[in-house]
Design a protein that fits this description.
Structural class: mainly alpha
CATH topology of one domain: Helix Hairpins
Shape: flat
CATH architecture of one domain: Orthogonal Bundle
CATH class of one domain: Mainly Alpha
Distance between the termini: 158 Å
Order of helices and strands: HHHHHHH
Helix content: over 70%
Strand content: under 5%
Number of strands: 0
């Protein structure tokens, strides 16, 4: 038996890993629970984060829109654009019927003048009403003072004490009533003075307004005559200008038509010139051909005459120069006095064949 210590071969099998031991299993369970808790917590947090970011983006967008709207509202350029647009719209309205606008303004002035006249009439009625009240109160005050004086006289002359007391009280009552009426008349008179001042002022205004309306009416009538006259002259001028120059569309159509006619005339003249050149070439060719034919015919005629002259035949002796006085031989079968028949161009042509 060997004395050397031996290493057991199953040592690796005897040593277990951490995850295979009980604490390892506990650790795996803890990690699994922690992961599940993390996933659950993240699932709860993510919607909040997304909602917060979305709300933040919405808030930023709305703030930008609000800033843009405020900038447009308070921008000087926007104000300028608004004024220009309103001015352009007003210009369109005024340009439609300026005389109608002036007449409408005059009509509105007359309506307001009628309302003012009614108000002046109401003030005049109130003045007359206050005058009547003041006159009535003055009369009543005088009557009360007269009754008070009569009661005082009875009170001082009567022997009956009760009658004296009754007359004294009656005197005091009538005197008090007369005082109240006179005091009321003082207030009414102050109010009447104010109403009279207002009435006088309104009456003066009415006179000036009547003058202003009449003057405006005359001005509108003059403006209407000038406007109609100028419009009539302007329409005549535009008509004359349209006759000379035409409108923009008519002028453009006229120019296009003239260009078309010029092109058409040029094309036709060109075709006619081409035809003229072709016809001239054709005529020149015919002339050349006819000339060539005539030259050839004359050459053949000269050759034939030379042949006849040089042949020595008696029948052609009359062709020689100076032989016209000699008697012309008469062929057999011809009358002596019959002249020789002249040959036609067709006969010469047959000879040249």
């Amino acid at each position: 038996m060997s004395l050397t210590p031996s290493t057991p071969t199953n040592l690796g099998d005897q040593l277990k890993s951490f995850w295979s031991r009980p604490e390892g299993k506990t650790g795996m369970i803890f990690i699994a629970l922690a992961a599940a808790a993390a996933v659950y917590g993240w699932a709860q947090i993510v919607p909040f984060i997304v909602s917060m970011l979305a709300d933040t983006l919405h808030m930023v967008g709305l703030a930008a829109i609000l800033a843009a709207v405020l900038f447009v509202i308070f921008s000087s350029r926007t104000h300028l654009l608004f004024r220009l647009v309103m001015r352009a719209i007003t210009g369109l309205i005024i340009d439609i019927d300026p005389i109608g606008i002036l007449k409408d303004h005059l009509s509105q002035m007359r309506k307001r003048r009628d309302v003012m006249s009614q108000q002046i009439s109401n003030v005049s009625g109130q003045i007359q009403y206050l005058k009547n009240i003041i006159d009535k109160n003055s009369a009543l005050a005088s009557e009360n003072m007269r009754l008070a004086a009569h009661a005082k006289k009875i009170a001082t002359t009567s022997a009956d004490q009760n009658e004296q007391l009754r007359m004294a009280l009656q005197m005091k009552a009538k005197a008090n009533q007369a005082g109240r009426l006179q005091k009321s008349n003082l207030s009414y008179q102050q109010l009447l003075n104010k109403l009279q001042n207002i009435y006088d002022l309104l009456s003066k205004w009415a006179v000036h307004i009547d003058f202003y309306i009449e003057d405006t009416d005359n001005e509108v009538k003059q403006a209407e005559i000038e406007y109609k006259t100028i419009n009539t002259a302007f329409r005549a001028y535009r008509t004359a200008l349209a006759v000379i120059k035409g409108t923009g569309d008519e002028k453009e159509l006229y120019d296009q038509t003239m260009e078309h006619l010029a092109e058409e005339a040029g094309r036709k003249l060109g075709e006619m010139e081409d035809f003229q050149r072709l016809a001239q070439n054709f005529m020149d060719t015919i002339d050349l051909e006819n000339g060539a034919v005539e030259t050839d015919a004359l050459e053949k005629l000269d050759a034939y005459e030379q042949k006849l002259l040089t042949s020595g035949a008696a029948d052609t002796a009359f062709l020689l120069p100076g032989a016209t006085a000699a008697p012309v031989p008469v062929p057999a079968g011809k009358a002596p006095d019959s002249p020789p028949a002249a040959k036609s161009a067709g006969d010469y042509g047959d000879m040249f064949k």
